[in-house]
Amino acid sequence: MSPLAAAARPAPDSDRPCRTFLAKGMEAEKKAISLLSKLRNELQTDKPIIPLVEKFADTDIWNQYLEHQQSLLSESDGKPRWFYSPWLFVECYMYRRIHEAVIQSPPIDDFDVFKESKEQNFFESQESIIALGTHLQELLKTIEDLDENNLKNEFFKLLQISLWGNKCDLSLSSGNTISQKTNIINSLEHFRPFILVNDMEHLWSLLSNRKKTRGKGTVSRVDIVLDNSGFELVTDLILADFLLSSKLATEVHFYGKTIPWFVSDTTIHDFNWLIEQVKHSNHKHLSKCGVDWENYIKMGRWVYHDHIFWTLPHEFCAMSQVAPDLYAELQKAHLILFKGDLNYRKLTGDRKWEFTIPFHQALNGFHPAPLCSIRTLKAEIQVGLQPGQGEQLTASDPNWLTTGKYGVFQFDGPL
Ligand SMILES: O=P(O)(O)OC[C@@]1(O)O[C@H](CO)[C@@H](O)[C@@H]1O
Ligand SMILES: [Mn+2]
Fold first, then answer.
1. Measuring from atom 3 of ligand 1, which residue has the nearest CA?
2. What is its EC number (predicted)?
3. Which of 48, 74, 136, 190 counts the most CB atoms within 10 A of its CB?
4. Ligand 1 centroid vs 310 CA: distance in angstroms?
């Protein structure tokens, strides 16, 4: 039963305003459902892609983009349609239309249709989350005394945890939760052969050299373009905590989505909700994490940013034109980590590149700062492989590009 329907229990006679409110809620819910079934019908029957109608911060940019897509077609092709348009564009459009159905239906216009599944993913991964929180708190006890090599090993561990955390997105499973039930720390060695491009050393050199050479009071800023909420977000926050505690960074900036997106992507509400849950955990190590994380935010050492660009269909090489303010913000980072598969598709323009094309080339001019994609492979695109590597993988594991079994740390930037 939906949250609104569940709330629609019989109200006492004296409770008229409440009853009126519920009736309005039920009407709104019916409207949203009818708009969503219209959307499903358009999609299933390959109708033309239609402009957005409801005024929202990004409506004009979206409609310009649709016009641009139309201009790419020859006259005889008519309008862009669901089955024959680029996958990246149509997929983003679908999530934007889901949002439109909701904002057209006040008073439920700020309802997150994916909230329940994101929260479920967090609760079902509890055991693993507790193991990570405990690992971090134990590590922090001795972090000041670790020598270079040990610190590097710990950094690499937490990077890999954040990588494999990306297996847990909900969009591939139609929202059915894929949670993390085992202690991922014990599995890192087993997963290592599945890292196809491993530029972790570059990340270490960049951050540790800067730590050694930066003056007192100078900033080392790492930006993380977040992907999924739930278990993956916990792995990212653990990494971000380590970056501050080890002094490899002095500030971490996060970027989330302004609207519910690809089922499990992180919004500001998810970000705050998760930190609050962690803080109120009855596990002492985990709740300590939550308390520290809230303090980092209060002190401005962790900063969360919103920008509509992340929920547009544009590839990232268009950012400097479409969202120059966001590009300028990213330029302030010393390192940008892009989490997840969708970010990889947008970094590389979702094109059918040869597997051996250098990552730098596929970025097509997008170089705001040194950057690294941390991504498990779920879409048929991969660049920067060794000659023959892609072909070998295809021969041994035909679905290697789409199952999330393989991952990359792919770096671009001066060394
Ligand atoms: O970015 P994420 O969360 O790693 O993955 C999102 C994703 O699973 O959603 C799409 C399938 O609907 C694919 O493009 C992509 O692989
Ligand atoms: Mn995602």
1. 169
2. 2.1.1.-, 3.1.3.-
3. 136
4. 14
Long-range contacts of 134-141 (CB under 8 A, 24+ apart): 134/283, 134/285, 134/286, 135/185, 135/238, 136/238, 136/241, 136/242, 136/285, 136/289, 137/285, 137/288, 137/289, 138/285, 139/242, 140/245
Q: Rounded to the nearest 5 degrees, what angle is found at the Cα of 361, between the Cα atoms of 360 and 363?
A: 70
Q: Running DSSP on this structure, what letter comes out for residue 317?
A: G
Ligand 1 proximity of 172 Cβ (cutoff 6 Å): yes
- % helix, strand, coil for the chain, step of 5: 55, 10, 35
Shortest-distance ligand to the CA of residue 344: 1
Residue 285 has pLDDT above 50, yes or no: yes
Token pair for 204: 């270490």
| Topology at the third CATH level for domain 125-412 | Rossmann fold (3.40.50)
Ligand 1 neighbour 227 (Cβ under 6 A): yes
Number of C-beta neighbours around residue 53 at 10 A: 10
Q: Report domain extents, the chain.
A: 22-104, 125-412
CA of 172 to the centre of ligand 1 (A): 6
Pocket test for ligand 1, best of 267, 341, 343, 374 (most atoms within 8 A of CB): 341
